[in-house]
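WARN no homologs supplied; continuing
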Amino acid sequence: MRYGSKRGAPFCKGDMTPMIDMTFQLIAFFMVLVNFTDADQNELIKLPSSELAKPPDTPLVSPITIQLTSDDYVIMGADRYPMERLRDALLREKQEIDRDRSSREATIVIRADREAKTGKVQEVIKICQETGFEKFALRAKQQEKRST
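OK structure emitted
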């Protein structure tokens, strides 16, 4: 009794479209997760060196970077303000943050130029406190250890 001829198994082609689609989705996902900490830095700011400076242990929650130039201007994001307009900029930022979460969780990161006056850094902190921010982080360049 013959049931049919024996032929080889039919050749199956795999559709690669879902695989390519998934690859592009993974690329997009990882692009969103990339750490853009260098984007918060400005080449106008030359940080002071410190032996005590060290990278933070954990990432900051809701960081707001304020950069103080040597000529007493403040840079927040892409905007440059005279010191007198910092309060208005912080109030706008606070309103944005308070829509999603409490501004008390936000950390103000202050990057002051090494030529900036200490009194101006204190003035920035005072303005931040008056607008309702409570957490601060000061940035400095880590000194390289010399081997003797």
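The chain is about 30% helix and 20% strand.
OK
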